[in-house]
Amino acid sequence: MSQKTAASADNQYVEAGGVRYAYRRFGKPGRTPLLCLQHFTGTLDNWDPAIVDAHAADREVILFENAGVGRSGGTVPSNIAGMAEHVLHFVDALALSKVHILGYSLGGFLAQEIAISRPGLIGRLILSGSAPEGGAGAGMDRPELLAIYTDAAILPPDKLKRLFFPATPAGLESADGFLARLATRTAEADLAPDPAVASSQLQAMISWANWQGDVGAKLEKITQPVLVTNGNNDTMIPTANTFTLATYLPNATLIIYPNAGHGALFQYAADYASHTRTFLAVD
């Protein structure tokens, strides 16, 4: 298993609660595994090899595909709690007693829910480009974003460029590098998400953003060490939400990457991998 990489790791499947979940598992056994939860409409193929392969040198990395996405069965829940419940079904099916979680964007919403509902499962959390429940703009339903999501004339790689990277020479160069790394996959590819995935996930994210509860009181329930990261100008899930997370999480470390947006982790992949590996190095 340790010889596999993001490019060569097999698609694997496990069934729980009547749903067959797709995942990839690779890396060095022995330490607490890192469970990776993906962004809006993202699949197993959207994880940056520069990040997950770096972590695989330290520990097992588990890339999870939620219900209704890519090669996983079932249907996409229209709420975050339902998506988080699927993660827990999957974790139980693999008999994992403890994990670290890297939750990117939408995946960070799920990570927060899991940390509260089953705190004993979580060692450490990494929340990148994410937001608390009730976070302003976290629904990603602004007209300028919807125009990109729904424009069939824009190819998926170009959508990633526009949404994740700044339109600067350095940003565009980073975008090309990221896309080139994704293209190194040699084993069986994932399936593209069905159009219904975006609709259900967006509905869940809008409901998350519109929550009217006490944001600080909820975040104070997450007592695990948390690394919170983002770019300084995230136009998808506004960077202000990252500062909110860092303010109210009781045990948070904050990293903001300069001249970057939602895809800061990909734009600064080597730095991000170094920072996140250091954060998890305690075990």
Which SSEs are present, and which pair or pack?
Blueprint: E1 12-16, E2 19-27, E3 34-37, H1 49-56, E4 60-64, H2 80-93, E5 99-104, H3 106-117, E6 122-128, H4 143-149, H5 156-164, H6 169-182, H7 195-209, H8 215-219, E7 226-231, H9 240-248, E8 252-257, H10 264-267, H11 269-280
Parallel strand pairs: 3-4, 3-5, 5-6, 6-7, 7-8
Antiparallel strand pairs: 1-2, 2-4
Summarize this, please?
This is Alpha/beta hydrolase. With 283 residues, the protein is α/β, with parallel strands linked by helices. It has helices at 49-56, 80-93, 106-117, 143-149, 156-164, 169-182, 195-209, 215-219, 240-248, 264-267, 269-280; strands at residues 12-16, 19-27, 34-37, 60-64, 99-104, 122-128, 226-231, 252-257.
Fold and architecture overview:
The chain has 283 residues and is an alpha/beta fold. It has a single domain (12-280), classed as Alpha/Beta hydrolase fold, catalytic domain (Rossmann fold, 3-Layer(aba) Sandwich), CATH 3.40.50. It has eleven helices and eight strands. It has helices at residues 49-56, 80-93, 106-117, 143-149, 156-164, 169-182, 195-209, 215-219, 240-248, 264-267, 269-280, and strands spanning 12-16, 19-27, 34-37, 60-64, 99-104, 122-128, 226-231, 252-257. An eight-stranded mixed β-sheet has the order 1-2-4-3-5-6-7-8, sandwiched between helices. The two termini are 20 Å apart. The model has no long low-confidence stretch (mean pLDDT 97).
Spatial order of the strands forming the largest sheet? 1-2-4-3-5-6-7-8
Order of helices and strands: EEEHEHEHEHHHHHEHEHH
Major β-sheet, in short? 8 strands, mixed
Q: What's the CATH topology name?
A: Rossmann fold
CATH-level-4 superfamily name:
Alpha/Beta hydrolase fold, catalytic domain
Level of helix content?
25-40%
How many individual helices? 11
Helix and strand composition category: alpha/beta
Can you tell me the residue ranges where pLDDT is under 50 for at least 5 consecutive residues?
none
Give the percentage of residues in beta strands. 15-25%
Distance between the termini: 20 Å
CATH class annotation = Alpha Beta
Taken from the alpha-carbon principal axes, the silhouette is: globular
Q: Taking all residues together, what is the mean pLDDT? A: 97
- CATH architecture annotation: 3-Layer(aba) Sandwich
Number of beta-strand segments: 8
Using only C-alpha atoms, the radius of gyration works out to 17 Å
